[in-house]
Amino acid sequence: MGPASLQKISELQRNPRNIRNLCILAHVDHGKTTLADCLVASNGIISSRLAGKLRYLDSREDEQIRGITMKSSAISLHYGNGGQEFLLNLIDSPGHVDFSSEVSTAVRLCDGALVLVDAVEGVCPQTQVVLRQAWLENIRPVLVINKMDRLILELKLTSTEAHDHLKKILEQVNAVTGTLFTSKVLEERAEKVKEEEEMAVGEQVYDWSAGLDEVDDSHLYFSPEQGNVVFASAVDGWGFRTQQFADLYSQKMGVKAGVLQKTLWGDFYLNAKAKRIMKGAQAKGKKPLFVQLVLDNLWSLYDAVVVQRDKEKVEKVVSSLGLKLMSRDLRHSDPKVLLSAICSQWLPVSTAVLSMVCEKLPSPLDVGEERVEKLMSVGARRFDSLPEKTQELKTAFLQCSSAEDAPVIIFVSKMFAVDTKALPQHKQRPLNQEEMARRRELARQRHAERMAAAETHLVAPDSRDTEPESAKTERSTQPEEEEEQKEVFIAFARVFSGKVKKGQRVFVLGPKYDPAHGLRLLSEGSSDSEVPHLSCCSLQTLYLLMGRELEELEEVPAGNVLGIGGLEDFVLKSATLSVSPACPPFTPINMEATPIVRVAIEPKHPSEMPKLVRGMRLLNQADPCAEILIQETGEHVLVTAGEVHLQRCLDDLRERFAKVEISVSKPIIPFRETVVRPPKVDMVNEELGKQQKVAVIHQVKDDSSQGRVSDSVQVDPGGLVTITTPNRLATVSVRAMPLPHEVTSLLESSSDVIRTLEQINLSLREGKTLDISSRTVEAIAGLKAQLESLLQGRRWRDVVDQIWAFGPRRYGPNILLNSLKDYPRPSPWQCLDRASRTPQAGPALRDFDNSIVSGFQLATLAGPMCEEPMMGVCFSVERWEVRTPAPLKEDAARSSEASGGAAGSSQADCYGPVSGQLIAAMKEACRQAFQAQPQRLMAAMYTCEIMTTADVLGRVYGVLGKREGRVLHEEMKEGTDVFLIKAVLPVAESFGFAEEIRKRTSGLASPQLVFSHWEVISSDPFWVPTTEEEYLHFGEKADSDNQALKYVNAVRRRKGLYVEEKIVEHAEKQRTLGKNK
Ligand SMILES: Nc1nc2c(ncn2[C@@H]2O[C@H](COP(=O)(O)OP(=O)(O)OP(=O)(O)O)[C@@H](O)[C@H]2O)c(=O)[nH]1
Ligand SMILES: [Mg+2]
Fold it and tell me: Which PANTHER family match (predicted)?
């Protein structure tokens, strides 16, 4: 079949019943792109010899080099089946975890999915993820068990063993589907049972169990007899459904095809004597039908062609199958070429897969009501709470009509960048006769002019302005061309209703657009520009997506996937477009990946900063998952989902979007600083006596304040730090305490509530009366109650009411406490009390209250260890005195006349304003108080799930151990030899982890990393031996590896802070062993 013409495809686009929008989903490397190649080859777009080698849809260079897909891309294919012509919009998606957001964008545009499973590896973590994604979007999956050849050639299984193995895989896949669909299955069963019960009333006694068996929920599961499973080897180009063999053998054996189809998979065997198909092959030790009629054939073919290379046998097989081979293939030295030549004729994988797709996957007309309602109801809003006009649109969705009056509704799931040169408008077309004649004439003229110019040149050598006109224009267009080599953005979209025309004007509905609000405003006569989250644009160009190529289209009817040009100024990453303002924005795409790996980026040449900034903005638009931000430090930061994703983003930035040299920092690993309770045992697990404990604290204090101790700072043995401002007017005493772990997590998770609380308190202080919604009051009261229940015991008595502030940034997981006896501050929870919700109720604030809070905020934002934010620390202010300045002697006379306030000014001047001094003093007091306690670093942790087989389990443990990982639990999957390990791993140790695991286990285990929580690193970064046992055990220097100190130093070095490190010690002791032996 040759490539379909554009006209043909546009024709097919008009018949939604015969359209299938589908994506290929699988775990990484299970053969998605290879299978797509086979399907593309069936349309003659690439040669079938190259299918599987070209990986046509991996159009990026780095995709080809690395051998993994990094973006989803679409291609339209046509297929004739049973006298009908079908149009298939196929989307190939990446399988690597880092790119799972690309899968989400693909799934949104489809009605069905081809789920691939590697016949050897079976269900992998990403297989589960994609099945879940398909389920979340309500799209129907069908299954392809790929890489069947590996069972024959790699695992060298017999056909019977392979059959058992395949059964297990199918069970695994169905188990995943089962857990996802359980509720749906139960619902449908209940409905069916009810129906049947109604029908059965009065006829017979209803048998429960039999009824359940008969209920047909099988369309949800994968089973070969249902025809929704293909067994394939994409590399060798073959694939089949049991149906094909059933048809074949029904003629040969004289059995009905329907019966064979039902019995070909399962525990059935052929009783040759009785000429009957019987059940119970396994119990009776017989060969199941599937082995006898299907697998044995394949096994003997592989045996003849690849293993034995028996020419005669091959020829026999070929002629018995009625195939015709080219002698070139027969003579080829690589048996695989011959094999794929035979297989792709005998059981072409494209036919098996495409016919399954056409039969089993729904067309755009079959979009279920459930899916439509899910798409249309944003957030927690219920569908029936939407305006009537909006609800009416549901029928438009369900009809998927392309009639002129049907409202146009389009969803853009991502924006992707293409080179301008790749656009069809800029591609060179073959010239027609007329154009060629014109060009010829132009060339002749130019030549004549040049000759003339050469002559004048001889006469007047310096006359330059005789340059032919055409040459001038050529030169002037050159820079323009360079300018044109830009990236343009194309929207990856699908028409859900109506017919889209080129140049049509539509509304762009932002994710926060509310149709009820919008409709009201518009009916009141507002123009569209006044409605929030609504803008208007025109669809400049429409494209048919053909893998690497684009074709321009004039119009696209409902139910098709398309590309739209000219939206880059209106759409950032995804959007809903519609002609009707009643249309709600679609629910946001379920993104599986959360971006966590962050690096700082700067141009090699500082002058290229604007280019880089522009490039980063483009990258942000072109990638569904990458995030771009500017940190407080002014660094430009790129946040990506993982290492591979990071690499791709950087390549894109360098080569496409910014086109400048960039330098990239090492991944920025976030840490937190905290304090813990003094340890009860020392490093060698000896109990610390009271005496020694004091010694430990002294040690820390001495260390921290060495050389900096001044008379204005005092630290008492209990860790209370007292600081006086330089002008000696104010004194604060602060003590640091660790917060209980649960409190820290509570504060972290309720940062939103705290932020609201802070805002309310601020406006109360400013004297505004507030109307607070009951939901907010409830949330705040809930937080208070939880804090009270968690902060119990003598140490925390009544502290909840004494909370002064949260920090850093006023909502962080640290607390400032007011433990002053003489300063009754207004309670932070005053908004809960109705009476005090009016301004100026309760006690007033003391002067400089704000300075104390600011000092605390600054201290918690950057701790003393390595300037990382603090976490889980409570600072209690136990003394705060502000003296009114005593007038200086010489000023005394004057000040008695002047007002009291101005008196101190001359003295305060040399130190600056009091408020500033107090901020600095408070900050320093917090830092010193922090250092007076045992300090610890907190590391961000990933949870990681690793699936691995028993034989490489040890190696996985080895790698985890080396990288400070901790196994949480391990379980064996029933019926397989696969172990599922759940572990936690510090983010700091995760770089190269996936790679190492894969290498050490030869690709058998692949981890999935997800950020989970913060964890205290148990080792003390500033630890030195203090007890005798410790001296004995660690030596005087105690210079064994200290992980926490290593992290601290690494962060300090990155931030350009002073790092205390000894590089060479006792250099005189170095010697070369060989010489002095
Ligand atoms: N033996 C065997 N190898 C296969 C088969 N199909 C694909 N492969 C190989 O598996 C590897 C991965 O194939 P791809 O098609 O790139 O896999 P993918 O699923 O697209 O991978 P990602 O897009 O990175 O997730 C390639 O080396 C293929 O040659 C098959 O049927 N049999
Ligand atoms: Mg791929």
Answer: ELONGATION FACTOR-LIKE GTPASE 1, TRANSLATION ELONGATION FACTOR-RELATED
Domain of residue 499 covers: 369-422+485-578
Q: Which residues contact 932 (CB under 8 A, 6 or more apart)?
A: 697, 700, 701, 704, 715, 719, 721, 736
- What is the per-residue pLDDT for 563? 94
**CATH code: domain of residue 601:** 3.30.70.870
Same structural domain for residues 686 and 628?
no
Is 432 a member of any domain?
A: no
Atom number of ligand 1 nearest to Cα 63: 24
Q: Are 610 and 746 in a shared domain? A: no
Is the pLDDT confidence value at 699 over 50?
Answer: no
Predicted confidence at residue 384, as pLDDT, reads 73
Taking alpha carbons only, the member of 941, 980, 97 closest to residue 592 is 97
pLDDT band at 204 (very low <50, low <70, confident <90, very high): very low
pLDDT confidence tier of residue 814, bands split at 50, 70 and 90: very high
Of 1032 and 962, more confident: 962
User: Does the pLDDT value for residue 353 go beyond 70?
Assistant: yes
Comparison of pLDDT for 542 and 66, the residue scoring more: 542
Distance, CA 416 to ligand 2 centroid (Å)?
17
Q: Which residue has the CA at smallest separation from atom 12 of ligand 1?
A: 29
Number of domains in the chain: 6
**d(C-alpha 221, C-alpha 131), whole Å:** 12
Q: What is the CATH number of the domain that holds 557?
A: 2.40.30.10
Question: Quick check: is 402 in a domain?
Answer: yes
Task: Report the separation in Å between the CA atom of 28 and the middle of ligand 2, taken as the mean of its atom positions.
Answer: 7
In total, the chain counts a number of residues equal to 1077
Same domain, 305 and 316: yes
973 in the same domain as 992:
yes
Query: Could you identify the atom of ligand 1 that is nearest to the CA of residue 69?
Result: 23
Q: What is the CATH number of the domain that holds 302?
A: 3.90.1430.10
CATH of the domain at 60: 3.40.50.300
Is 655 a member of any domain? yes
**Tens-digit pLDDT profile for residues 937-961:** 998 888 887 877 777 888 888 888 8
What residues contact 866, with CB distance under 8 A and at least 6 apart?
A: 671, 673, 937, 1047, 1048, 1049, 1051, 1052, 1055, 1057
Lining residues, ligand 1, CB within 6 Å: 26, 28-34, 55, 67-69, 94-96, 146-147, 149-150, 233-235
Residues 677 and 807 grouped into a single domain: yes
35-76 confidence digits (pLDDT tens)? 999 999 999 888 888 888 888 999 888 888 888 899 999 999
Q: Give me the mean pLDDT over the 308-321 stretch.
A: 84
Residue 127 sits in the same domain as residue 173: yes
Long-range Cβ pairs for the range 1045-1053 (8 Å, 24+): 1045/1019, 1045/1021, 1047/669, 1047/671, 1047/866, 1047/937, 1047/939, 1047/988, 1047/1017, 1047/1021, 1048/865, 1048/866, 1048/937, 1048/1021, 1049/866, 1051/669, 1051/671, 1051/866, 1051/867, 1051/868, 1052/866, 1052/867
Region of poorest pLDDT, from 265-269, 517-521, 1038-1042: 1038-1042
Between 828 and 977, the higher pLDDT residue: 828
Q: Are 11 and 23 contained in the same domain?
A: yes
pTM of the shown model:
0.72
Helix, strand, coil percent values for the chain (each to nearest 5): 45, 20, 35
Distance of CA 288 from the midpoint of ligand 1 (Å): 30
Domain boundary among the residues 578, 613, 634 is at: 578
User: Which CATH number characterizes residue 1051's domain?
Assistant: 3.30.70.240
User: Tokens at residue 125, please?
Assistant: 């973590």
Measured in Å, how far apart are the chain's first and last C-alpha atoms? 80
What integer best gives the mean pLDDT of the chain? Answer: 80
- For range 289-293, the mean pLDDT: 91
pLDDT tens digits, one per residue of 20-37: 999 999 988 899 999 999
Residue 907 belongs to some domain of the structure:
no
